[in-house]
Predict the 3D structure of the following.
Amino acid sequence: MHDVIVLQLHGQKNWRFYEHREDLPDESFFIRKTDEEKESPSLNFTLSEGDLLYIPRGIRHDAVTTSANSIHITLGLHPVRWLDVIKKSLVRYRGSSNFRKSFPFWK
């Protein structure tokens, strides 16, 4: 639902990426992995201490530690979307009687 930056601090972690990409998912989207995706990632690599990874919004991925101890920090970059601006505008003007009037279909 958002872009991600990952910094591997300790140990190693294996990251797997899958071919299917979701087009601009939002908070209502839930990813369900198919059996095919679990078996065949399209990209597979390992992050080691000090490595940095950027994952764009909508890229299906998962990660598994490859060592006994592994620590990483994930930073989520949440976009400001048109839908967010419209929702906030509607909430802001909800109190205005002009916006509570019926739409003038017959004029």
